Amino acid sequence: MDKDTNRAWAMQHKGIIYAACLILVLFYLINMWWLLTPNVEIEYKMYYITHELSDWPGYGNLSYTLGTTEICTGRWDKDGKLVDYPVCMRKGTGWEKNQNEGSKSCDKESFIYYIPKESSDSGTLTIQVKDIWCNNEGINVYINNKKIGTFNTSGLHKFTIEGYKKEELLCVKFDTGSNEFLLWSICLDNF
Amino acid sequence: MERVDIRKSPNYKIFMCLVVTFILSRLLMAIMVLVYNNVMGTEHSFAYLMNPWDAKRYQFIIENGYTYPLDTDPQANWAFFPLYVIICQLVKLLTFWKLDTFWVGMIVSNICIFVGAFFGIKYIFNRNNNDLYNQYHTAQVHNISDNNWVSENVIIWGSLLFAAPYMFYCSSTYTEAMFIMFIVLFFYFCQQKKYVLAGCMSAAASATRIVGCMLVFALIVELYLDYVKSKTIAVTEFPFASKSILKSSSTSTLKYKITALLKYKFYRIKNFLYEIFTTPKYLIAILLCPLGTFLYMTFLRFFCGDAFAFKHVQIAWREESYVPVIGVLWKACTGQIEPRYTYMGWFCIGAFLVYGYMISRKYYSMAVFGIVSLLVPLTSHVMSTCRFTVGSYVFLVGIYELINKIKNKFLVCLIIVLLVLIELYLLFLWYNSDCWLM
Question: Fewest CB atoms within 10 A around its CB: which of A172, B19, B103, B275?
Fold first, then answer.
């Protein structure tokens, strides 16, 4: 090969490598875009990405059949056996990790999330409080940031709530402040 | 034609010394199985004892591929990078899917660590005989045809890579051995100035473990050192930094001197960047470094919709959050978390000291990689940092350099024996699935 052919080959060679570099950069940029825009289910997003859920509910398990009373323990009992009752695996932040005797609040606000399978114009939220440590003001309960009631004793409490839509996230918030309570069960129902 | 006697080749000598060290180390592992079974009154097999914890997860992925997390277990297996799994699957395929997965994993790991040890010692020999490093008085120059010197050093090196504390991971179904092999080959190719190949090794390392991406920093350091050496820019080229000014110590010229030095540094870095962008093979070498991780990210995007799933899934293992690095080390070293983490915290401090020593010995790129690869896990916890540190390979080079500096041969033997004994103790804990190794 003469000198000109060699130079032309070198230039072409250089061009190919630059093209490969460009492809790599584009590939990385596409991945960066995917990093910013994950295409995942809501349970995945709330547990793995935003950490709004304290327990992994499993794919599709934030969906809720109205009227199901869920017990607020873990999936396993003290002996490490899987429990045979419906467990509330939809708890958000503000709950203690140890939940053998129920779920104890441990922050100023504690959350529970639902995605109802049906719409309703009105309904009820029933909670069974196993124990409570609070002043007279009590603990305020909100649904989607709208106050639905207060409680300051243990036992069964029933709150009336306004309507909710099918497949839309519903957030139950317990505004505990400096108080604490031990939640045993919770049930969302329509009238 | 002249007949070449392969037995006289330095590579043959290195290979044979490593084979002997390797066989002895694996014999010790087998003996420890008998010891463990006798002490604990069990009858577990070698494969069973060698492969607890994550090895079982790798076994599952090798046999079934990646799966979605169960409702009862959020620890999704996509936290584990795919290259080791793919290689194991290929080896298993070669045996018509007959060979036990643990044995496949162990065979792959043992081959990888042997290859790593071989090229690692070649790197060190080359470095010690390289002109660039010989200009420093700290470098040792030896003739590779000196049989005793080669044997002694290969045995020290082999003992470190096959039987030093925490190296049992390299014999089990874990990614450590393969990761070490790619890191060794990365530095070896950098030394040979085959930067594109080094980039490919980094890409492979980044498909084995996320920290492999960090080799890009080591590559940049290597390229910069190479650039500085090849260009040797004369300070006198710069009117603003003439030798007389730089040598002057009068206070009136101090400010001017600092400005001149800064300008000089800036000029050199600017030229280095220009060199990178105008030399396509350097550019592609750098861009290749994280390719493995990005390919895995693409897979995850299509598999579960989240390209960063391997990072996000960590919440299922570690829920505590501390201030990255400083906070984590403070909590660990001051005993505010479990005692095993106090030990690991201090182990990390020791590792940083070793990297500091490596910088003083001009192992710049390795030290940079070691520091960065230790900082990554320290952003969340000290958990498993002993494994990560030893598994980043460069720590072993630092230890080798430290041992090599000792002139007293008896003391060197004593240290090696001590390290092997610690490894045997840790191996016992490993067989017992002891939490101090987590």
Answer: B19
* Smallest Cα distance from A17 to chain B, Å: 6
Cα–Cα dist A144/A140, whole Å: 13
Number of residues in chain A: 191
- How many beta-carbon contacts under 8 Å exist across A and B? 77
What's the gap in Å between the CA of A23 and the closest CA on chain B? 10
SS (H, E, C) B296-357: HHHHHHHHHCCCCHHHHHHHHCCCCCCCCCHHHHHHHHCCCCCHHHHHHHHHHHHHHHHHHH
Distance from CA of A47 to the nearest CA of B (A): 8
Q: Give dist(CA B211, CA B217) in Å, integer.
A: 11
- DSSP annotation of A86 reads -
**In A, which residues are within 8 Å of B73 by CB distance?**
56
Q: Which chain B residues have a beta carbon less than 8 Å from that of A84?
A: none
Query: Do residues A71 and A86 touch, judged by C-beta distance below 8 A?
Result: yes
Please choose, from the candidates B143, B158, B202, the residue with its C-alpha nearest in 3D space to the C-alpha of residue B18. Answer: B158
Q: How far is A93 from chain B (nearest CA, A)?
A: 12
Q: Is the CA virtual torsion B310, B312, B318, B323 positive or negative?
A: positive
Residue count (chain B): 438
pLDDT by position in tens, chain B (length 438): 566 677 778 889 899 999 999 999 999 999 999 999 999 999 999 999 999 999 999 999 999 999 999 988 899 999 999 999 999 999 999 999 999 999 999 999 999 999 999 999 999 988 887 644 454 444 444 555 567 778 889 999 999 999 999 999 999 999 999 999 999 999 999 999 999 999 999 999 999 999 999 999 999 999 999 998 887 654 444 444 455 555 555 666 777 878 888 888 888 889 999 999 999 999 999 999 999 999 999 999 999 999 999 999 998 887 667 778 899 999 999 999 889 999 999 999 999 999 999 999 999 999 999 999 999 999 888 999 999 999 999 999 999 999 999 989 999 999 999 999 999 999 999 999 998 888
Nearest Cβ partner of B294 from A17, A28, A75? Answer: A28
Closest residue on chain B to A58 (Cα) = B71
Q: The tokens of B144 are what?
A: 């590779």
Q: What tokens does B254 get? A: 């101090």
Rounded to whole angstroms, how far apart are CA atoms B177 and B118?
Answer: 13
Read off the pTM: 0.91
Angle between helices B195-208 and B291-304 in degrees, nearest 10:
40
Q: Which residues does A169 contact at the CB level (< 8 Å), separation at least 6?
A: A42, A62, A113, A114, A115
The beta-strand segments (E) located in chain A are 63-64, 70-71, 103-104, 109-116, 120-133, 139-143, 146-151, 155-164, 170-175, 180-190
Contact B306 A49 (CB under 8 A): yes
- CB B307 within 8 Å of CB B301: yes
Minimal-distance CA residue of chain A relative to B306: A38
